[in-house]
Design goal:
InterPro entries: GH. This is GH26 domain-containing protein. The structure is a single chain. With 350 residues, the protein is an alpha/beta fold. It has a single domain, classed as Glycosidases (TIM Barrel). It has 10 helices and 13 strands. A 5-stranded parallel β-sheet has the order 1-9-8-7-6. It has a 4-stranded parallel β-sheet with strand order 2-3-4-5. α3 links the parallel β3 and β4.
Length: 350
């Protein structure tokens, strides 16, 4: 099982030596919808620590951008022995560059255009790429009548879901939640979902996130939730679900600020070493958010638990090595040599 964590480019140096292992790391597109060049510091970080790059794009079926992405993939650096790729992650009702609302039908068409391009790459390149859709748990499960089948094209080398614990209390009462959910219940719909009887695509939690509210002072409650999730997904395999489970990636950064919630304000701090404190967040002498402050807790139990899980031996299996079906070289673990002199990647704030 792959265990990874994603953080902002500006915090690479902050996290480089706080994590015992990082197997897979999300990298998001530039403003033009294309991934960054291979010289980007996030790729440098992946190479230094041996993480698999998981890149997102916003190609949206555009032929010219598909051509440019193809060129980028054809020049993939030799150290990238494995690459995960998705287009327009969390696509549900998104807004396209021209202002149109993205429909499920259009998203499926666009994703399949991306997949078709990937499938036509030369075999030595294609064998290193896993391409799949990534859906949104909160969009799907927070409103009655919705289901994962609505936006799933049913194609791809994997099926991903971005899964977050609601920051608000049950009933969306405008106050912070008071307990973490039980993993088996919280992940029940994801576990049960299949596009059809023949859907054996491996699954991945492409983003896994839960804030640490003020009442969880040392992170013990969030740590217990993280271990509960890990224990639950460790039992997902073809015998229990009909498909294998690839891994999970912790969203180790600030989330998109949402509606104000009493106890956390508008900010959503997902970092493993931070907890909300319900105090004012100030910057340059002015209040940014009346309740959006946080404390940094280097000994946070959530961080300790992540590191414990990440360094467990025997987590990687050949069946989960991430190569498309029929191309798996059978290596039990992806090994990537660190670049000389990159024990600590220095990054200027973005």
């Amino acid at each position: 099982m792959l265990i990874g964590t994603t953080f902002s480019q500006a915090e690479i140096s902050h996290w480089q030596n706080r994590l015992t292992k990082n197997d897979i790391f999300r990298i998001f597109p530039n403003s033009d919808g294309l991934p960054p060049a291979w010289t980007d510091k996030r790729y440098q970080y992946c190479r230094a620590v041996g993480a698999i790059p998981f890149i997102s794009t916003k190609i949206d079926g555009d032929p010219e951008r598909l051509r440019q992405l193809r060129t980028l993939l054809l020049t993939m650096e030799p150290w990238v022995r494995q690459l995960y790729l998705t287009d327009r992650h969390e696509p549900e009702d998104d807004t396209l560059p021209n202002g149109d609302t993205l429909t499920a039908a259009r998203y499926k068409e666009n994703f399949n255009a991306l997949l078709a391009m990937v499938n036509k790459l030369p075999p030595p390149i294609r064998s290193r790429i896993r391409c799949g859709p990534v859906m949104t748990k909160q969009w799907t499960e927070n409103k009655a009548g919705r289901g994962y089948h609505q936006w799933d094209p049913g194609t791809g080398d994997f099926y991903g879901v971005d899964a977050y614990v609601n920051s608000w209390a049950p009933g969306n009462a405008g106050t912070v939640f008071t307990e973490f959910p039980h993993a088996a219940t919280w992940l029940g719909k994801i576990k049960a979902y299949r596009f059809g009887p023949s859907d054996t695509r491996p699954r991945i939690l492409a983003e896994l996130g839960a804030i640490q509210p003020a009442w969880d002072r040392d992170g013990s409650a969030r740590a217990a939730f993280l271990r509960d999730v890990h224990d639950e997904v460790s039992g997902w395999n073809p015998g229990t679900t009909g498909w294998s489970f690839l891994g999970w990636i912790w969203w180790n950064t600030e989330g998109t600020s949402g509606a104000p919630v009493t106890g956390i304000g508008r900010r959503r701090w997902f970092q493993l070493d931070r907890r909300h404190n319900a105090k004012p967040l100030t910057r340059d002498g002015r209040t940014i958010d009346p309740m959006g402050g946080y404390d940094e807790v280097p000994t946070n139990q959530a961080l300790t638990t992540y590191n414990t899980l990440a360094r467990q031996p025997g987590r990687h299996r050949a069946a989960d090595s991430g190569n498309p079906p029929g191309t798996d070289p059978g290596t039990a673990m992806i090994g990537v040599a660190a670049m000389p002199g990159t024990a600590d990647v220095a990054v200027s704030p973005a």
